[in-house]
Specification:
alpha/beta, 26 helices, binds (2S,3S)-3-hydroxy-2-methylbutanoyl-COA
């Protein structure tokens, strides 16, 4: 049984106990449906309290059931039955009431909440819309102005705001169940269903503004506007018509590739920080972190740890460089305050948790030290030789290298079991991806510590074994090879960028190169040539040798006006690369996309076959959280796998 029934006098308390999030799976719905009948008929019962066991009320419908047709009683069936109950039902909300969980509460006649409870309808995150009345009942309870951001823009309501809006009837400060029972015991009747409340049309200007706002926040996803449309349909045609339209839209969206991709990522992102093979390994406590290098990566990494509440010591070789690093950090925190993400006081507190030191001696008491110095083997080796001498034997020592073999870096390091690669992505305090690259000697405890830190920082950690460029940059290199081959064969690079932007990338590969700087890839190619590898002369080499390194030099593949990051077509660039551009027929847009996504998946399969990545899902997470692959497509492995099965 996942529903328990306790009697408190004349009040029945039903507890949904379906760990981990009390999802309203079929058996839960069936039991609840039956209990409505039983309790309605029970003369001893005057009211019903519905609550969730554990840390929350209900996390929603069971997302795991979405790949099959809904079984009865469906959630709409159950909610209509509760609404029709003759005894008043009170939803007692603590923790989260999300999606179908909030819709269930909206079907109850009354709602009470514990302090700090959070309510929302985040279905659009999954490429669907609320499918059990949320788009109709919520606006009728709290008004369109407050409801639309919850339904279509991922806004959450805490208990105070919910009380203010009339979503909840009471906040229970003491023990929730007792408070809810006391509230219910005083009830003598139900209340008309939320759906019967009037909702007038605010007029075209309101809808225009709402559509524009929702479309902007949707970033190309289709569910948010579909949710708004369902709300409006109910305003125009009444609640019943709105419920029908909502359900049809929900069922239709559920079968889309976009929703399948977003659900796939939902589970992948939740599983990533808890690899099964580390579940029984206790991570080390990390109370103080040292960061070596105050450049762009070093200051970003320090900010990521501070944002997670961990005190940081920033180390630089000289005082002026240290001052610059600390100033960059201060700038990051106060920029976050200016954007309203944190308060000024919080920005000051985060900076107060940073100390600086010149040299490495000041890092001897750190539990973890992350090296983020210049990408040079000898420089890194020297840093770790010193850290190995200065730091405690149980301190974790990590390198942020993106290309160099960690085994080479740790060659002379005593106790290499404490060494690991932690590859952050720029800007490190923003980008969610963290490639965790164990050295062959890395202990499972140190590995578990890396994943625990990723959880603490809200990162998506992906384990990568050692190869050149690990998972992400290796696939980036493959993309470069493929895109360059297309240009050589006659497909304009601007057409490639346009094709991938329309596919869903925020920018194309050539625009991305101009932003990151062409010289990074050029130096890697030159280094490979110096190692005797055959790297054919490419258009990128011609551009860099002509002084075109991207935005920072006013031009790369494209031209850029002073202070403007908008790519402009460049005759100069076209002339420079012309000797290497073929006269073949350019590929059509879908061919470009198929070719490049296919190449990414092909490289992904090679990475899997070599055991560099643990799963195809991990490869997709790297692409989504490190390289801007559109979430609505799920990732190259997910997409090509679906195509192959179609
Ligand atoms: N269904 C199935 N599994 C779920 C789930 C759900 N709704 N929510 C979470 N899980 C799993 C998750 O995969 C993980 O599994 C474990 O629970 C713990 O999750 C009709 C159609 C509730 C705030 O979108 O936001 O209702 O990895 O790590 O940090 O309109 O989970 O342990 O195996 O996230 O404490 C709408 C989704 C559904 C909310 C808890 N609801 N969940 O956070 O734990 S659609 C949502 C969350 C719907 C109706 C529609 C969070 C949480 P595992 P976790 P957490």
């Amino acid at each position: 049984m996942t529903i328990t029934l306790d009697r408190h006098g004349s009040v029945a308390v039903l507890t949904i106990d379906n760990p981990p999030v009390n999802a309203l799976k079929t058996s839960v719905r069936a039991q609840l449906y039956q209990l409505v009948e039983v309790l309605d008929a029970d003369p001893e019962i005057s009211a019903v309290v519905l609550r969730g066991a554990g840390k929350l009320f209900v996390g929603g419908a069971d997302i795991g059931e979405f790949d099959r047709p809904p079984e009865t009683p469906t959630l709409p069936d159950l909610i209509l039955r509760v609404e029709a109950a003759v005894k008043p039902w009170v939803a007692a909300i603590h923790g989260h009431a999300l999606g179908g969980g909030l819709e269930m509460a909206l079907g109850c006649h009354y709602r009470v909440a514990a302090l700090g409870a959070v309510m929302g309808l985040p279905e659009v995150n999954l490429g669907i819309i609320p499918g059990a009345g949320g788009t109709q009942r919520l606006p009728r309870l709290i008004g369109l102005e407050a409801a639309i951001p919850v339904i279509a823009e991922r806004v959450m309501l805490d208990s105070d705001r919910a009380l203010q809006l009339g979503l909840v009837d009471r906040i229970i400060e003491g023990p929730l169940t007792e408070g809810a029972v006391a509230f219910a015991a005083r009830l003598s009747q139900t209340r008309p269903p939320a759906g019967t409340r009037p909702l007038s049309d605010p007029g075209p200007a309101f809808w225009e503004a709402a559509s524009a706002r929702v479309a902007k926040a949707a970033k190309g996803q289709s569910a948010p506007l579909a949710a708004l449309h369902a709300v409006r349909h109910g305003v125009d045609h009444g609640c019943e018509a709105g419920l029908r339209q909502e359900r049809e839209t929900f069922l239709a969206l559920k079968t889309t590739q976009e929703s399948a991709a977003l659900r796939y990522l939902f589970f992948a992102e939740r599983a990533a920080p808890r690899p099964a093979d580390l579940r029984d390994v206790t991570p080390r406590p990390i109370a103080l972190v040292g960061v070596v290098g105050g450049g762009t990566m070093g200051s970003g990494i320090a900010a990521a740890f501070r944002n997670a509440g961990v005190p940081v010591i920033l180390s630089e070789r000289e005082a002026p460089a240290l001052e610059r690093g600390l100033a960059t950090l201060r700038g990051l925190f106060y920029a976050a305050a200016r954007r309203g993400h944190i308060s000024e006081a919080e920005a000051a507190a985060r900076m107060a948790g940073v100390t600086g030191c010149v040299g490495l001696e000041g890092l001897s008491s750190c539990d973890l030290v992350v090296e983020a110095v210049f990408e040079d083997l000898n420089v890194k080796r020297k840093v770790f030789a010193d850290l190995g001498r200065l730091c405690r034997a149980d301190a974790v020592l990590a390198t942020n290298t993106s290309y160099i073999d960690p085994r080479q870096i740790a060659l002379n390091l005593p106790a290499p079991e404490r060494f690991i690669g932690l590859h952050f992505f720029s800007p490190a305090h923003v980008m969610k991806l963290l490639e965790v690259v164990p050295h062959p000697a890395t202990s499972s405890e140190v590995l578990a510590t890396a994943f625990q830190l990723a959880r603490q920082m809200g990162k998506v950690p992906v384990r990568s074994d050692i190869c050149e460029g690990f998972i992400g940059n290796r696939m980036l290199k493959r993309t470069r090879v493929e895109t360059e081959a297309l240009v050589r064969a006659g497909t304009p690079f601007a057409a490639i960028d346009a094709a991938l932007r329309r596919f869903g990338f925020a920018m194309g590969p050539f625009e991305m190169q101009d932003m990151a700087g062409l010289d990074i890839a050029y130096m890697n190619r030159e280094a490979a040539r110096a190692r005797g590898e055959s790297v054919p002369e490419g258009p990128l080499d011609l551009l860099v040798r002509a002084g075109r390194k991207g935005i920072k030099t006013g031009g790369g593949w494209y031209d850029y006006a002073q202070g403007d990051r908008t790519p402009q077509p460049s005759e100069a660039a076209a002339a420079i690369i012309a000797p290497l551009v073929g006269a073949g027929a350019p590929l059509a847009e879908d061919q470009i996309v198929d070719r490049l996504i296919g190449a990414l998946a092909d490289e992904g399969r090679a990475i899997l076959a070599e055991g560099i990545a643990s799963s195809a899902t991990d490869i997709d997470l790297v692409q989504i959280h490190g390289y801007g692959f559109p979430r609505t497509k799920g990732g190259p492995m997910f997409l090509t796998d679906r195509k192959a099965k179609a």
